[in-house]
Amino acid sequence: MRIFSGIQPTGALHIGNYLGAIKQFLELQEKEECVFCIVDLHAMTIPYDPRTLPKNVLDAAVCYLASGIDPEKSILFVQSQVTEHTELAWILNTVTPVGDLLRMTQYKEKSRQFQKDLNAGLLNYPILMAADILLYQTEVVPVGQDQQQHVELARTIARAFNHRFGPTFVEPRVSLPKTGAKILSLTDPKKKMSKSVPPSCLYLFDEPEIIEKKIMAAVTDLGREIKFDPIKKPGIANLLTVYSQFSGLAIPKIEKKFRNKGYADFKKSLAQVIIEALEPLRKKRKELLSREVYVREILSQGAKKARSIAQSTMEEVRKKTGLV
Question: Is 17 one of the annotated binding-site residues?
């Protein structure tokens, strides 16, 4: 079974990225054929500094590798180094209704956020994402909850293309983690964790003292009871989810562990659990940052492998669509 997923090179990863997607990647690469992509073309749809993009791409690769992605088991590459992504995206534009794009939740949110920089790329973002997925005949796309709608659109686009030009693409299905699919903000547990609001984020490679400071300052709820109740106690419910994901303990066991204890005890324990879980990743990242040539070679070899698959798909697409 072939798996595809990607992460934008838009700065440091937070624990929501890790628990919602990367943790799935580590499990999947042990038993499936995995293709992981650093989607630098997607990063161009919002204001960015071209001088820092190359560094961000390299940092993203380091984050993947430090998190446990194994280049011997998985393909890891940079999207723009495989030009078939953009070629297929253009072709898929011709079978995608504009109305479907306008209904995308993320487009609505981003268009409000970047009113002065609204561009066609932001609207067409889901088509490029569909091309990323369909190019590799992907069967399963492991993502966080916020990307589920985009994968569903990729299915719709694949179906439309297959109907018009004949069977060509696999219709991918989404894979969400059973828990941790949507980690919420530390400062506003009614919203998802987001890099656009730095205080709300716990970054994957934060130093231990920063982790402790952020967790101790995290918003909680009225009362003292450590209980999982997303409606009445969204702050504690979010922190319990994080605790469970990093410790491997079921939420009921954590609730029992902190029965008759207050929020301070719970938060101190949570901070320590996160620090210990992420320590190996921090060490690996520091090592990889000093081995830039090695990381670039991994990306180069990954692009060659990805290109081989992509070219095969595009040969069929060109034939089906009359592009000879």
Answer: yes
**pLDDT value of position 178:** 67
Was 142 annotated as part of a binding site? Answer: no
Q: Which fold has domain 205-286?
A: Tyrosyl-Transfer RNA Synthetase (1.10.240)
pTM of structure: 0.85
The whole-angstrom separation of Cα 221 and Cα 141 is 35
For residue range 171-186, list pLDDT tens digits in order: 999 987 665 557 899 9
Nearest to 151 by CA among 167, 171, 165, 137: 171
DSSP letters, 146-211, are: GGHHHHHHHHHHHHHHHHHH-S-----EEE--SS-SSPBPSS-TTSB--TTSGGG--BTT--HHHH
CA distances from 7 to 60, 64, 85 (A): 8, 9, 15
11 a known binding residue?
no
Q: Is 190 in the active site?
A: no
3-state secondary structure (DSSP) of residue 233: strand
Strand, helix or coil at 37?
A: strand
Say whether 110 is catalytic: yes
Quote the CATH superfamily of domain 2-181+292-321: HUPs (3.40.50.620)
Annotated catalytic residue: which of 110, 182, 214, 267? 110
Per-residue pLDDT tens digits for 20-40: 778 888 989 999 999 999 999
Domain ranges for the chain, please list them: 2-181+292-321, 205-286
Q: Which of 192, 214, 233, 267 is catalytic?
A: 192
| Residue 256 assigned ligand-binding role | no
Q: Is 192 a catalytic residue?
A: yes
